[in-house]
Amino acid sequence: MTTETIIVREPPGHKGKISRDEAVAWTLPELKGLRKVLGPEWYRLLKGLVTNPLSVAGLIIVAFYILMAIFAPVLAPPTSEVVDPYLVPRDGFSPEPKPPGTVWNREPPPVPTWYRVITGKDYWVHLLGTTSGQFDIWYGVVWGARTALFAGIVVTFSTVIIGLVIGSISAFYGGWLDDVLMRFTEIFMAFPFLLAALLLSSLLVPRFGRSIWPPTIALIAFGWMRYARVVRGDILSAKERDYVMAGRVLGVKDGRLIMRHILPNVIYPILVLASFRLGDAVLSFAALSFLGVGTQIGYADWGQIISFARDWILSLDTHWYIILFPGLALIIFGLGWNLIGDALRDILDPRLRTEQG
Amino acid sequence: MTAYIIRRLIQLPITLFGVTLLLFLMIQLLEPVERTALYVRDIPHTEGALDAIIRRYGLDEPFHVQYWRWLVGRVDPETGEKVGGILRGDFGFSRTGRQPVIDLILYRLPASVELALWSVVPIIAVGIWLGIVAAKNHNNIIDQAARVFALIGWSFPTFVFALLVLMIFYAKLGWFPPGRLSDWAQRIVLSPEFHQYTKMHTIDALLNLRLDIFWDALRHLILPIMTLCYIQWAMLLRLTRSSMLEALNQDYMTTARAKGLSEKVAINRHALPNALIPVVTVGGLTVVGLISGVVITETIFNIPGMGRAAAEAAQNLDVLTAVAFTMFSAVLLIVANLIIDILYAVLDPRVRLQ
Fold first, then answer.
1. How far is B40 from chain A (nearest CA, A)?
2. Is the dihedral of CA B224, B228, B229, B234 positive or negative?
3. Alpha carbon of B242: minimum distance to chain A alpha carbons (Å)
């Protein structure tokens, strides 16, 4: 991706085609203060995001999950203060799942005000039913939002950092270091992602116990390569530009040249990739949990709840709620990030901008 | 051209060496005590037994010594026989499969290959076709529908999709059951008069001229194929679409139209061949998608293939089996990528010149 096309923001009324999004953006009142704070680049990005209906939908979805994660203790209060709130409370141990609306008999959690107002009941029912072993699905879905956001953000942030470091060192120094690092990247890419993550995650279980960490670390270990490659490619083209040459002539130190002059210009493609990958990371995390190498049994995590459905393949038509609710939570979560990523790509890719009629 | 292929072939051993090294490093995450379970099936509960095993198998020796032994095998001090060594094809004994890992792979392979073979044609053909249709209808309602379809497909985890289709088409409607064969068909397949040439039931059934068994096997395959296809279509659609759009905007398309070619001829003869070149690279991604897809679909649809064996092994910390399956699929992927790269160079002369 070339960077100049983004930086030059043509004034309203310029000759040539304007995409619909830009036209909308210009007719809106300019928020001068905001633009000053963010700078023209980030301002344009933000404006693009809030003027495109698809990305607005994505933002609303993500905001919804963040709120759900923040207010988890209110939406699904833990049964007592001594147990880990991330462990889903159980209503007995019977293997037969119970449908939504079944009354919560054994040690129900305290009844919050919102629940009393909406349902008019003084006692908890299993809003979304229970799995086999009587884990409450509503609790799992609500607290699962915290697990998903945590895993998604940690994995994405770590992989972006690793990719940036390896990609920029590789591109900036070139030569044998570039060769070695790219071979290194290729070796990681030679593995099919899910299988490699599955193996690593299972090998990490004796070290960390069944918890959120083995799948998270496994996803980081096999998730950084795309970033490294994109960063390397972009830096290689940025390196040839005059402003970097000028910096070199002036004797700017390497580290500063990378940090101040090159990286800011390659950060946008990474941003697009990262927003796609955040949803992806959570889906992969759920898949690992589903396959039984993730969090411990009963941990509030969507993939984990869905895995309970594996015992009920023959009667899924009566026990549909085990897959439907956590499944929807997962799909909509992924969709939200994908919508944002899609919109970001449209905003940041200059070729697509001129194409749109 | 030859130079390019040779260059790629030289890289092959380096990558393979890296793959084995990385796998071995991952195994080293386990403590020596935990690694004894990889070599000895029943550890005696006497004092010092663990230490004896650690010493006997050299599990506390320097990394490079252990790695070398893992590659080429070692001489058992008691029996004097040479054992182990992945280069000799000895991956050890599979705890979950209750047989040597290499036998387990051969035993589980046909079911996975059958599933992959049935899936790959619809994945590629329909995926590319959808992309072309979307590109031809750029920005109108069909394109938007394709876009929504792709976005949902991307957000749809394989295992949720698999469970949903199972819920609808099996639990609710009873059309397509999980597993590989119905009981009656299983009995015929295992009977002496039915020859299992390939162990792939659909093909064997045709070779034995048993159409009833062919239909039964196919009926069991429909849902897994559907699952594998849906997830991959989303990706193929997006890639073909953008590649096709780029081709449609090239100067040679203007030329083709200017010289009076019909739109159909211009697209099919000029844009399409060029648009499909980048799509070739997707082949690698399709292989990856099939491998990971197979792990999940086989687990859910109860198909005794490689993917399910790998998932079971990982779940039960049967490291030897899990490592062998991971390595097997990595080699498969490396070879697939090599073929694709060479194909790409044949199709696009610009690649060779770099």
1. 18
2. positive
3. 10
